[in-house]
Give the backbone structure.
Amino acid sequence: MQTILFYVQHLMGVGHVFRARRVVAALVKRGFDVHLVYGGARIPHFDGEGASVHYLPPLRAGSTVFGKLETPDGVAVDDAYKQQRCDMLLAILEKTAPDMIITEAFPFGRRQMHFELLPMLEAASARKNPPVVVSSIRDILQENRKPVRDAETADMVERYFSHVLVHGDRRLVRLEDTFPCYERLAGKVLYTGIVAPSKEDTRAEPAGGPCDVIVSVGGGVMGAQLLLAAAAAKPLSVLQDARWRIVTGVNVAPDLREKVAALAGGNVDIHEFLPDLRTQMAHARLSISRAGYNTAADIFRSGARAIVVPLSDGEETEQLRRAGILEQRGLATVLWPQDESAEGLAAAIARAMAAPTPDYGAINLGGAETTADIVSAILAGSSLDAYR
């Protein structure tokens, strides 16, 4: 049995953790001995999907400065804390002796983790039988980075990584669209398709019965404006008499939930969290959400007619790029940030309901299983041409 060491670190949002977990599940199912190294704050009810989970002392991005690392209770991380993590990671490498190391996001992201990842990669390359090292990244990267950082990323790929697995459908977007130094690593890039939930993850009937409109904002950290706009748009929209279900996320304050309920009026359910959100989407007439990777995957898998409202905080570009692609391909109606208001959303609802039903059938949603295929092919020395 071949061994894979899979490193994942979440610093703020946890969407990429769930994407990684789907990949891990596919690798375990394929028969690999997977060791998941997990460095963020623990997520309630987290399931390693059959992998052995190794928890490092947790850290997160700083609450005021993203690049400043801190513990989950807000204490700044010092050099001793970092060294403890680094030592543990090196010990895991030594104990597991993996055939392959997969780093989620790094080196395209997680620059703050250089203090432990670079020593691990150096130690791995010095082993008698060095493991294959692979980077696992989403389809769309942040686009406003300094050119020197893109060059540094390409340097690290050239030095340490044999392949870069891009979890996207290359017919929708390609890595060169958002990574300026693409040509330096073009021969290492492989496309897996979108890591979407399996068909079996969608149940036959949603809890509480079907609704007409489902509104969701992930954990809710950056969702207040959309929640308020959606609630206020309900009585203004062509679906004002429909049954709405609004999922606020667990990180929204109780007073905001009360305000959302008051604005929305009657025939609306307010929930913090729905475990069967994808099923809810599949049975709704319309989904209203942000435009993150996992949300788009849920929309594609559920088949839902969708309005996406990309997050824009002056820094992040990923959701804006994804929303533009969805709009161009006729896969979703987009409400752009400058129009994120009750009136703007009501108008978007009218456009979405008048538009043809989107056809997601041609999108490659088998990213987790294809990743397992690629990993098997890499370790077997087989051809990878089908994934380029």
